[in-house]
Structure formats: structure tokens, C-alpha cells
Amino acid sequence: MNENNPNPDLLSRLRRGEADALKKVYERYADDVYRIALRLTGSPADAYDVSHDVFLGLPEAMQRYDPERSFPTWLRGVAVRTSQMRLRSQRRRREVALPDFARIAVRAQQEAVVDRLTLERALNQLSPDLRSVVVLRELEGLSYQEIADLLGITRSAAAVRLHRARKRLRDILRGNR
Question: Which domains does the chain have, with CATH numbers?
């Protein structure tokens, strides 16, 4: 921040809440306040809000300003405290919002159960040969060669069966039995 204090007359007019004084201080320090807020919040939108809050509350905050101190340093402190309050407020809102995440997680789990049941029904419609290769490959994670060895078929036969099984599953899941 520009370390030069504005003239005392400007500061006393700002303390009284005069709009033209606020405008001059804003024009001189807004970029610095925004930059500090951006570094602390990490968000341009939050930094803008912090800057807005700092300057909106500045005439009232000036009641606590000590003219013996550097105004830019004091204003930097106001920007830091306002940024910290915003971050704490967001953290509380996130904590309050956790039940929403819990509901979303439960809903996702329910949807996963429905998806799993749908997939199980589709798997049950496959022939035993096709169902075996899908289960061994997709659920058990076996390689084509391991599937071939288990089923007593060639590696290429295992790959062909898996291809056919996947195509059949797609058709079943799309409703084209």
C-alpha cells in the first residue's frame, strides 16, 4: 500500500462519512485492499466482496482509527480482518451445509443400489457362458488369459465372449431385449 497518509482534512471528512472523501480514499487504496483480500481469500469474487465491505464500513471504522498511526497500514489491517471474517463465515456455512452433502451421499448410494440391481437383473438375462466372462473380467478383475484358463477356452474366445456379453448387456439395459 502507498505508505503516505492522506491529508488530515480528508481523513476527518472520511470520519464524518462525506461521500467525496470516501470516493478519494477508494480511488487511492481500492486496488491495494483488493490485492490483499485476493491473497487471503484466494477468490476474486470474495476479494471483491471484502473490498466492498471494507469501504462500505470505512466511515464507521474510522471512529477507531488513531491519527498517529499510518493510515495505509491501518487500512491494510481492516482488509486483513475483514478477509478473515469472510473466511470464517464461509467455513461455518460449509459446516452447516454438511447435512446437504449427507443427503446427496445417501441419494447417490440409493441410486448406486438401484444401478446395481438393474445390472444384476441384466446379468441374469445373459447365458451362463456370457455371464461368466463378465463376472470374471469386470467384477473379479481377471485377465483374458486367466479367464481362458479357468473356463478351458482360448484367450481369443474369452475376448470374443466378453465382447458379445457387453453388447448384449447394452441392448438389455437400453430395453432392446
Answer: 8-95 (1.10.1740.10), 98-173 (1.10.10.10)
